[in-house]
Each structure stands twice: as structure tokens, then as C-alpha cells.
Amino acid sequence: MRYAVFPQHRRLAIEVGGKTTIYDTAGHQISGFGQQQGDVGSLTLTGQNGLVHLADLSVVSSEPAQAAPQGSSLPTTSRAPNAAQASDGTIFAKIEGLADLHAKNLLSDEEYHAKKAELLARI
């Protein structure tokens, strides 16, 4: 499970099992996430007025995550990747997700470039 909040656009993106769902956070200012390890259904959100229930948020879009394009520079191997390779792969996947949100105008140019630079700095 992966998730990100974009307060300027009132959006929350959650990816579970290869499916990304975008929610409208409405008046909630999401400031915290909690998740019990191994339990996909245990995501809790915290806003300015306490707990925010995912069921109370409106779904904006829902679609399968895109696979990496052919010829991608993402590492592929038949053995388990080391921690650095797994981390890099996750970062590239997050950047691809950001690009998708940017292409759908859910992220401004400034938000996209700032987050992309932050992710690339982790490599």
C-alpha cells in the first residue's frame, strides 16, 4: 500500500494491489496516516478534527497502476534485489505515479517538480 496527500488540490491518492484510487479530501486537512503492518484494511487518516474515515471521502478516479514501459531502466532481476535496488525501484515508481497525477492536472508544475526533485535526491 502506498499513499500521498496533495492538500492544494484536496486530493488523496492510495495504491493497493496495483490499483490507484484518488479521493477528494473535501474540507479535511489530512495531516497523518497510520497503518498496521500486514493489514491492508487498517489505514487510518488524521485531519484537523480528528480521525477521517476513508469511506466518508468521495472517489474522484480509480484505475489500475501502469506497468513500467518496455525498455525501462528500472532494475529487473530473477533474484531478490538488495535494499538499494528496491529503494531505487520504489522511487522510480513514485515518480511515474507523480507524472500520472501531473498529466491529469491533479498536481501543479511546481508540486510535481518539487516532489520529483525530493525523490531523486534519495537515490
Describe the protein.
With 123 residues, this protein is α+β, with helices and mostly antiparallel strands. The protein contains two helices and seven strands. The strands form two sheets. Strands 1-2-3-7 form a four-stranded antiparallel beta sheet, with no helix packed on it. A three-stranded antiparallel beta sheet has the order 4-5-6, with no helix packed on it. Strand 5 and strand 6 form a beta hairpin. Helix 1 (83-103) packs antiparallel against helix 2.
Parts with pLDDT < 50 across at least 5 consecutive residues: 67-86
What is the 3D shape?
Answer: globular
Task: Give the distance, in angstroms, between the N- and C-terminal Cα atoms.
Answer: 21 Å
Largest sheet: 4 strands, antiparallel
Share of helical residues: 25-40%
Mean pLDDT: 73
Structural class per helix/strand content?
alpha+beta
In DSSP terms (H or I, runs of 4 or more residues), the helix count works out at 2
What is the helix/strand order?
Answer: EEEEEEEHH
Strand order of the largest sheet: 1-2-3-7
- The share of residues in extended strands comes to 25-35%
Secondary structure tally: strands: 7
CA-based gyration radius: 15 Å
Brief synopsis:
With 123 residues, the protein is an alpha+beta fold. The chain is built from two helices and seven strands; from the N terminus they run βββββββαα. The strands form two sheets. It has a four-stranded antiparallel sheet with strand order 1-2-3-7, with no helix packed on it. It has a three-stranded antiparallel sheet with strand order 4-5-6, with no helix packed on it.
